[in-house]
Amino acid sequence: GLNSPFISKFGPKLLLIAAGSIDLGVKVKNLGNTVLIHTPALSMFKDALKKNLDFMILEGSECGGHFGMLSSFILWERILEYLYMNKKEIKEKVNLIFAGGIINDVSTAMLASMLGEHLDLINPGIQMGTAYLLSEEIVTTQALSPIYQELLLNNSCTTIIGTSVNTRARILVDLIYSNYYLDLQILAKKKARRNYDKLNLLNLLFILLKWLYLIFLNQKALTQELSEDTA
């Protein structure tokens, strides 16, 4: 949970909140801190804007780490469209940080083309988290271990975990995850096999009951016929 006394006493004054609620952002801001908060959906963005949080990070599903359900361009377009449609109610520029799939000059140019006509409404910034992980500075300043960066450089495949519990995160497909995923596949196949066997059993029971019913009807008809002959 939020350690309010610790934050109040030691800082820092600038806090980034990922996978947190808007109410948490408000609590942190009320302690005298500047808040950067992830808003991966329009509903969260509206709430953060209404409660005057300092910076909203719009991080699409192309990013690393945790993310929401929308891709970057869809998320950005929805937020910008909302601001444009409600610009009369916006008293000062909104601080927005765009993130998710911004890796080179092409992606930054694509983002810039979207922002051009909205600069009267926003103060835009760019977050390039994955690109920073691959920089020399992050290792020399000891912000990241060289082993972590080596894993990034030697792997090109990623996968998504946490979908079933709504906490999606992008991770590297390493040996541990590969084995774990293989185990899940084996369990799924076993479960499917059990379900298949149960279905076959039910089908056999249904066929048996059907034949018993037909035998009963035939026996009833035969008995009735014998009774009529006797009469």
UniProtKB/TrEMBL annotation:
Alphabetical UniProt keywords: Membrane, Transmembrane, Transmembrane helix
A Pfam family: NMO
Keyword Transmembrane helix assigned: yes
Full protein name: Uncharacterized protein
Transmembrane segments: 199-217
